[in-house]
Design goal:
346 residues, alpha/beta, Rossmann fold, 11 helices, 15 strands, globular
Length: 346
């Protein structure tokens, strides 16, 4: 078992193992569920370690369960890696209406499919992936419970003084990506209500690890001597392993109408202060661009803390690990989050 007090994560293999290490709460939660877990869109940034965590938690709880990851698998070696972790795989274009019915039945669905980066200029595909596909999935898996990933972007900008948007706040999405994500939620809500499908909707904001995420974006800019944009002056961040654990636990809370939950770090983080924290660790100066606006894309995570408990990994631990990884030239996914974009263009 990896210790969260370790000063350094050595390599990608150790990182993936730690990101998929199940919490005790996750073991207990998955033990209450019967049947297999099908992860749709497993090929994204979170999917592989979430699927591996689901398998590890099920095995540790003594449950004989198939965990099956579904994706197009355009990334080389990902399918083989998942198989080595005990996760079965199926190649499938989920938008292909002939392929979706051929997928195996499963009592538990984790829906991770979607489109964000590259959505500007491909708006029609973005809406098809984010709003049309969820309806098809609900019709195909109308007898399952579904944990559906969404995003805090559906809230739009909220005043920093209010400490983040809550689940009861009315959505106010900015830009077509965020609007299509609200469309995704509405499709899951519609079919949850009309077909009595238990659904949990996970509004994530933002998962981070050592290869990508808002904290990595800031660290890389500070380390390379580039100015850090601070017009989006505040943000949330949560360790991806904690986000994986909470998302899997949300399956046990799925309901009709849907159970909606923010999954985010407990603090509102100042981009300026985070940048300075990295500058201190790198022993480098930091430059800033712009001025903090009075509002930002922020989520209040108090509800998730009550349901799932606090994250295991603290902000300080994340900063220490990311700084160490950056100094050592650790692998990155080269997928910036564009967290600083206030117009919702991705």
């Amino acid at each position: 078992m990896f210790s969260q007090n370790e000063k350094s994560i050595c390599d990608v293999a150790e990182l993936d193992a730690f990101l998929s290490e199940p919490h005790e709460r996750t073991l207990r939660s998955l033990a209450t569920l019967s049947g297999d877990i099908l992860v749709l869109g497993v090929g994204g940034k979170m999917g592989p370690t979430l699927a591996r965590m689901a398998k590890r938690a099920s095995d540790a709880a003594g449950i004989s369960r198939r965990v099956i990851g579904v994706a197009r698998f355009s990334a080389p070696n990902l399918e083989k890696q998942l198989n080595s972790w005990g996760v079965e795989t199926i190649r499938c274009d989920l938008l292909d209406r002939n392929s979706l019915p051929a997928l195996p039945d499963a009592p538990n669905i984790v829906y991770m499919a979607g489109m964000k980066f590259g959505s500007t200029g491909q708006e029609s595909l973005t809406w098809a992936m984010n709003s049309y596909l969820p309806g098809l999935v609900c019709e195909r898996f109308c007898k399952s419970r579904i944990a559906a990933f969404s995003t805090g972007n559906v809230y739009g900008l909220s005043p920093v003084s209010q400490a983040g948007s809550r689940e009861t706040d009315s959505p106010n999405p900015v830009g077509e990506y965020a609007m299509s994500c609200l469309g995704r939620e509405r499709m899951f809500e519609h079919f949850s209500r009309t077909l009595s499908i238990p659904v949990s909707i996970i509004r994530l904001n933002y998962a981070t690890e050592l290869r990508y995420g808002v904290l990595v974006d800031i660290a890389q800019r500070v380390f390379s001597g580039k100015p850090v944009a601070i017009s989006m002056g505040y943000l949330n961040a949560i360790w991806q392993g904690d986000a994986n654990a909470m998302s899997l636990q949300s399956l046990a809370h799925a309901a009709s109408p849907p159970f909606v939950i923010n999954i985010a770090g407990p603090e509102l983080l100042s981009v300026r202060k985070i940048s300075q924290e990295f500058a201190d660790r790198f022993q480098k100066p930091v430059q800033f661009e712009g001025v903090e606006a009075p509002d930002a894309l922020l989520s209040n995570s108090q509800e998730s803390l009550q349901h799932f408990g606090p994250p295991r990994i603290s902000l300080k631990q994340m900063l220490d690990w990311i700084a160490d990884w950056t100094i050592r030239g650790g692998e990155t996914l080269a997928k910036p989050t564009h967290f600083e974009d206030r117009a919702g263009r991705f």
